[in-house]
Each structure stands twice: as structure tokens, then as C-alpha cells.
Amino acid sequence: MRALCWNGVNDLRVETVADPALLNPHDAIIKVSLTTTCGSDLHVIDGLIPTMREGDILGHEFMGEVVEVGSAVKNIRRGDRVVVPSFISCGSCWYCQHELPSCCDNTNPHWEQGEPILGHATAGIYAYSHAFGGYAGSHAEYVRVPFADNDCFVVPDEVSDQQALFLSDAAPTGYMGADFCNIHPGDTVAVWGCGGVGLMAMQSAWLMGAHQVIAIDRYPERLAMARDYAGAITLDYSKADIHEALLELTGGRGPDSCIDAVGMEARGEGLSQVYDRTKQLLHLETDVGAALRQALYSCRKGGNISILGVYGVMDKFPLGLMINKSLTIRTAQQHGQRYMHRLLDHVAKGELNPAFMATHHFSLEEAPKGYEMFKNKEDGCVRAVFMP
């Protein structure tokens, strides 16, 4: 089959590789219909995530058709149209039973690579280095899905392929971020980052009862999407003093909840950006923490901070600020299995629609071009979708 492979930092090639095969009775093979880029892919491509190997297949956000199932698979069958969360969950360990699937104890066969860094191994994830399991990704014609009964969700007829695609990662991540905010009627929610996850966090905040949603970014086309598709008030951080603008929009108090949907490659302004980028380039830290620091600074006292962006090691983390402002911090890699039925229901009822994020479509052979456009945010690209 053909697949998009990582061959080194910023070296992506579409190659012919072996077809996936059933390795376990609980596996399924999915013929990929649609698969999409994700901001966290850029950390892999840029070499910020260690333990990648030459030839690893990229991609973790996808949907498709079941073409083969193992003998122990009971809940899906050949021909089913399914969406698959990016984190792999066994469904039976303590963490999966407590609705923490991205913390699953049983799906990362390379646990020993992550445990010294994290203290405990996380779940496996498609195409996110060998420290996270070394699973082949979805930018391919076919992909093997372990624990298929737990991780393949049949897509109802009312939900299109393009809508289902983003329920694999962007929508559940954004929905989880809003859920973490404990939103009450009348609340103001500010979201840093108008990429796929941020846009889904905005739509989700409205579903959970927010009174006002504020979007923060610097790209005009992304701010326009936040306004037009997520009903948000928009702020361009390159032109406005974000802290002062948020105080003005909230009667001097600050947002009740702040969601960081940016992560380690945020862009700051002034000397702080120079400081962070220099330390990042010298490998003294992995993160540029401008968005998260701004969210912590601007959130009201006693408010909620939801961190969805991917982070590694950050310098100058304002712990004292968090303590003195009585902030509640919640963060996680996305627990897609926890939210999937809810999300499918929202989309089927027309209450949530992520399809607008598919701004550009490519064949699999054009995937390197798609990633270049996505990475450089050319032509207003929010998500590049590949059709194997």
C-alpha cells in the first residue's frame, strides 16, 4: 500500500510499504476514507518528539471502512463506516474503566521509553513516536486498529464522512477542554488558538452554556472562522493588548475559564518570544509558553484553566501566580472514547458541525504538499484532508 512516511526532520515521503495485518484476535483493518493533519503532527515533523524512526507512517486522525476483523471482534463487522479515536484504549484496565482512556495501561508496548520521563506510561497513540507505542499511522490506504470493539465507533447515516473525520481527535479534544471548564450559564470562556481544536472548544463551550466566547489568534482567516462558525468575539494578539481587552469584555474581572489550544509552538511578542525561541533552539526547553502564560495571567481569580496544547518542558512557569489566584488547572491528552457517543449525537442533531475545518483536500500522493501548506498556514489552511 501507499503511505506518508517520516524520514527525518521535515523529510516526508509517500512510499510503498507493507499492508497491515491482523496481529491479535481483537484487531480490525480499516480502509482509510479520510485522514487529516493535526497541529501536534508538526511537533513530530519538526523533531520535537523523540523516538521517531525512519519510515514511520504518520497520521492519527481518521475514519474509514472496516474491511477485516479478528475472531474476537463482536461489535463491528466488514462494511461498517467507523471513526477511531487517536489514543488507543483497551477498555478493561483501571484507567479505561474510569473514563481515562488516554491513560490506558495496556496499549503502549514500549512503556519503558516513556515511564522514566513521565513517571507512568501513557496509552498508545497512532504515529506519535515509539515512546507512545510505535503504532503505524493513518496517512495510508489501510491501518490496523487494536482493541477494535472498544475503539471503532460506527458512524450513523446522518453524519457525513467529513464530519466524522474530526470526531477522531479535534472535536473530542476541544469538547474535553470545554468540559474541563465546568461552564455555568453566564460564563465567559476565552480560547487561545483558532486551529481545529480551538474552534471545536469554542463550539463546545456554547453547547455547555457559555454566555460569551472569545477567540485569540493572529491569523485573519482563522479569526474569521472563529467568528463565523463558532460565534466568538475575536482578538488579534499582534494588534491588541489581550489582557486589557479581556478585562474590558468581562467588566474588569477576566474570563471565567481560559482554554489553551496552542501548545509548545506558541508565538509570543517582544523579548519573551526571543528568550523562549533561543532556549528552544538550544534544546534548553521544548516549549514556547506564551499562550499559556497569558491565559494564566488573564483568567479571573478562582477561574478555570484548561490546557489542550501539547507540551514538554517549559521554562518560566508561573506557579506562584496560579496559587495566589486560586486557579483550577485541568489537562489531558484527549479521552475520545469518553465523549464519542455524545459527539456523534450532537453532530447528528446539527448541534455541532466540524466539517468546515476541512479547508483543503489532497490525494495521499500530495500529502507532503498538504503538510507544507498546513504548517505554513498558506491560503488559509486550517486542516488539510487526505483521501487515500
Would you write up a description of this structure?
The protein is of the alpha/beta class and 388 residues long. It is built from 14 helices and 16 strands. The chain has helices spanning 39-45, 94-97, 111-118, 148-151, 161-165, 170-179, 196-207, 220-230, 242-249, 270-281, 290-298, 319-324, 336-348, 367-375; strands at 2-6, 12-16, 28-36, 56-57, 62-69, 81-84, 142-145, 153-154, 188-192, 212-217, 233-236, 257-260, 304-307, 328-331, 358-363, 383-387. It comes from Mixta intestinalis. Residues 196-265 form the Alcohol dehydrogenase-like C-terminal domain.
What brief labels describe this structure?
388 residues, alpha/beta, Quinone Oxidoreductase, Chain A, domain 1, 7-stranded mixed beta sheet, 6-stranded parallel beta sheet, 14 helices, 30% helix, oxidoreductase, alcohol dehydrogenase (NAD+) activity, EC 1.1.1.1, GroES-like_sf
Describe the structure concisely.
Helices cover 30% and strands 20% of the residues. With 388 residues, it is an alpha/beta fold.
